[in-house]
## 1
Amino acid sequence: MSSFSNLQLAPSLARAVAEMGYESMTPIQAQAIPVVLAGQDVMGAAQTGTGKTAAFSLPLLQRMLRHENSSTSPARHPVRALVLLPTRELADQVAQQIKLYAKYTQLRSTVVFGGMDMKPQTLELKRGVEVLVATPGRLLDHIEAKNAVLNQVEYVVLDEADRMLDIGFLPDLQRILSYLPKQRTTLLFSATFSPEIKRLAGSYLQDPVTIEVARPNETASTVAQHFYSVSDDDKRRALRQVLNNNGLKQAFVFVNSKLGCARLARSLERDGLKTAALHGDKSQDERLKALDAFKRGEVDLLVCTDVAARGLDIKDVPAVFNFDVPFNAEDYVHRIGRTGRAGASGLAATFVSGSDQRLISDIEKLIKKKIELEAVEFEDERPRGRFNSGRRAWAEDDPRDVAESSSSSSASRDSGGRGGRGRPAAPPADPFFNKPYEPPVRAEDTPAASWEAAQSKSLRSVSANIKTKRKVAALFKSDEPVGHD
């Protein structure tokens, strides 16, 4: 069963799937959809970008069609399927996909996540929805506010479960699951089957069917991986060079910190690249606008932290750059999974500095491949402008031209024309600078004025150790003596 036409989906779902251009199923879809249609729990692992959203959404919608109705009463539209995801962007993306799948049905869906006003979300929940997509924190807010009632949930999906555990959502997950009916179908999807994930599955899944369509942490074969040895100061230049060498128009650029993300985005913007930043300190509205601009092609480079490393499905992104080597080796797999999706080819370039050797070793162990560092061949980007050699010689374009300028300056003056490489002729020599050195004249060496010489005779009786004040000629002479009353 490799074609969606063989699934015998309801006409409303089949029509939506056809409009979205789905023809052949991916391995995770081919294995998971029949199991979910049979009502069994699933513990699934697959490479990122292999179509997990359709793998759980389509069979759940198919099973819930028996509940669809045209009633306007919220009571006729209780929450029957709950989809939990770790990040806001991923929740919004999955919710959009589910809306597309269900657009020809009467099943309602909505999404709730943090960083946004709760009032519009509350209104959506109050009018009734069958499919609720949420992040754990915001869902608990709605549960405590009694906006979300989950006592009729039949299906639960824990997507990117390993990421939810990594960022500390386990207590929230346990609280949420305690509100749900015991009898339900639970689907857990994770990139890795760590001991923590297995314990979670053992606690909340009943006889799950394990589906692994690829070795855990295996990178997609469609992604060409390159590791470049670059100093920290040359990373920006290397990024531009690789973009130019491969004729890339768009790419993700991953960094390790929010501050580094903001600074790099500003620097690349000054370099003339259309850039947007995506990190945790951005408001949710700013994050969604940045993603939307990137999807529409208005942004060349999306500089982001690992908040964008999981599950974001943006088609036809040709490349991913690891400007910083990730601290967690598993994040490397998720980062480069943003390219080479749905069978397309992609490029993953990682810039490795001297302090990254331990992180590179961790990645080697994870992907079980020997990493060979490559050198970036920079083009001869000679700086433009005029540079002073320190020898009264000016060169245009490059400091290396200074020596050439110095040697040819005399010829330029003789010819009266312009020197090599379009340099202007040197100005004529100023005779002031050719005069020999003359010491400055001191005040005591100047001859005394005649009026001073007459008075000096009357002062000869004064000791030579007493230095008299120098007299200054008055401009006006007064006949009256100056005295005190």
## 2
Amino acid sequence: MSELRWEPPPSDSGGGPGRGAVVPERSAGPDGPSRWSIALLVFVMIGAAFALGIGVMRVIDASDDYGRVLRSSRDGGSPATIPAAVQPSEGDDEQPGAVDDGGRASRFAILDEIVEVLDKDFVDPAKFEALDAREAAINGIIDALEDPHTVFIDAERYRLASEDIGGSFEGIGATVNQVDGAIVIVRPFRNSPAQQAGIRAGDVILEVDGESTEGWSLEQAVAVIRGPKGTDVELLVRHADGEEELIIVTRDRIVVPSVESLPITDRGGNPVADIGYILISQFTEDTRGELLELLDGARNAGLTQLIIDLRGNPGGLLNATVETTGEFIDEGVILRQIDRDGNEEIFRDDSGGAGVDLELVVLINEHSASGSEVMAAALRDHGRAVLVGTTTTGKGTVNVPRRLSDGSVLYVSIARYLTPENAPVEGVGIVPDIEIAIPDTGFEAGQDIQLFVAIDYLRGEYNPNAANDDAAESEPANVEAEDGEQQSTEPEGQSQSDSEE
């Protein structure tokens, strides 16, 4: 590390100048200072100016700690202290400049030293050369925060992630999640390249193009699996039955409407015409507009009951979530947000809404996260919906992308959100009123037990015992109190939010 030193001006005398300020001698004669005194004064002033010039040059030199801190400050940083030059002591040796341990440059300059030492001396140079030391250091800091939602991603991965909100992207067409460190397919989109190639819900992705996914983050998996339309990606997957299969998927342009109205059948296989069904895949800028069109269609068809499917919905834009939820709530609190200083911001809905007169059942599962948890909790807390399914992810954190100087992005958790009734979501999730799981092969066999229960409930035919017989794992609950008011339970459980490939 460079040192900042105070350099005394040159002198004609054989010995060094004094440590104090240099003061020219004054003549004792009555005629004032002599020409030699004036010349000496000018010489000293020139020398002092030269020394100051040297100091200034060293301050702005790129190799100087002081210069780095100043540039950091100009670039928006706010270092705690600025290193200062120290006057030499009375001894023969001058002391190095002191740098405050709290300064940004002093705290992180040691990382450069570590990299230099490892690059020069580490016993396995190939391993070090293959390591992205910069990103490893960044991820080390983030990992120490123990917040799974604060994530660093490079510029290209951020571009890919941003496409989700746009409603289209190039990839294989599947929603993925990270479960116990593994990359898991939540569901392939209908008629997508993934579904056509044989990818199934619940598949664990073991390798991508021959590279193991062990230790990968969700963002890393999405960035690698996505790619230009027409290119292939090889996925080694483990199906729910334990069988491993190498599947080649040809990527395509994937268009994902955030809201869809789909035909459904009951447990007897009969088409359902008396109940509407809407699947909300994520919350984008278009979600509310798409929803309003479908609600108009339901009203024109004379429907008074609606199933909203939020299973596998990873969330999305906060404002879109609030606006969409507000269409079913006739005024009230939808979300409470608490920032780092404990300040509360309340998101409310105005009176009225296109779906305030509909009877609702909301389907949720362990892959419903963030915005979908906000919607489910708000509809439940306002007595607008019965929740059916399994406990949600538990992602109750508000994240914002902060773009960095090289185009990369740091997603930062800036606040936690609470339900309208002040219940936490982060690490807890939303527990359904009727808790019932689907067997691993349920969807493939056409046995969507959760959907059947929702239909039965709205038709007044719900039988907890029958539902328990159908599901491999379930804890059904009677959600009606004697006075007809809906009951809720305390949430529990945790996972991690989904993304799309």
